[in-house]
Design brief:
- The protein is elongated and about 95 Å long.
- A hairpin with a 6-residue loop joins strand 1 and strand 2 (36-44).
- With 162 residues, it is α+β, with helices and mostly antiparallel strands.
- The N and C termini lie far apart (117 Å).
- Helices cover 36% and strands 29% of the residues.
- It has two domains: 17-109, Immunoglobulin-like; 114-162.
- The model is unreliable at 1-8 (pLDDT under 50).
- It has helices at 2-9, 106-109, 116-161; strands at 24-29, 36-44, 49-51, 60-65, 71-79, 87-93, 98-104.
């Protein structure tokens, strides 16, 4: 009713937009597979469409409204990376005819991961050896100090007897 009243009075409503300028990206290695998950996330208004050009894999795209009234759009693509190939995600705001994209350089973003078992095989023995060395050093120091104090006591007794 209020909207109709505004229209009949000739008052125009302002339409706001917030561009999807900053696209946050993330690359995750999927454990136990040779696949990666590529994630694009951005905020803007109105709701944008997300596409992954030059891929035939379906993406999982979702959105939620933030407390500011913007849409937080997240799109996740899971695939096997191909050597020398880059991937990109595109946010298309149809109302503004605006396209924003982010490029994934998988060679630059993926770091070789050290298996956790290898870390355990290196770190645990290192700490055990370090602990043993500290115990031996403390024990030797204690013995040395006891010998030193016992000699001082003998020297004091011998000086008193003279």
């Amino acid at each position: 009713m209020f909207f109709l009243l505004l229209l009949s009075l000739g008052i125009q409503l302002l339409q706001t937009t917030a561009p999807y300028k900053k696209i946050n990206t993330r690359v995750l290695q999927v454990p136990g597979t040779d696949e990666v998950e590529l994630t694009c996330q951005a905020e803007g208004y109105p709701l944008a469409e997300v596409s992954w050009p030059h891929t035939n894999v379906s993406a999982n795209t979702s959105h939620m409204e933030t407390s500011d009234g913007l849409f937080q759009v997240t799109s996740v693509l899971r695939l096997k990376p191909l050597p020398g190939r880059n991937f990109s995600c595109e946010f298309w705001n149809a109302n503004e005819k605006e396209l924003t994209s982010a490029i994934f350089d998988l060679q630059g973003e993926m770091e070789p991961k050290v298996p956790p078992t290898l870390l355990l095989h290196i770190i645990i023995p290192f700490f055990i050896i370090a602990l043993l060395v500290m115990v031996v050093m403390i024990s030797l120091r204690k013995q040395f100090c006891q010998k030193l104090y016992s000699r001082k006591d003998l020297n004091v007794w011998s000086l008193e007897l003279r």
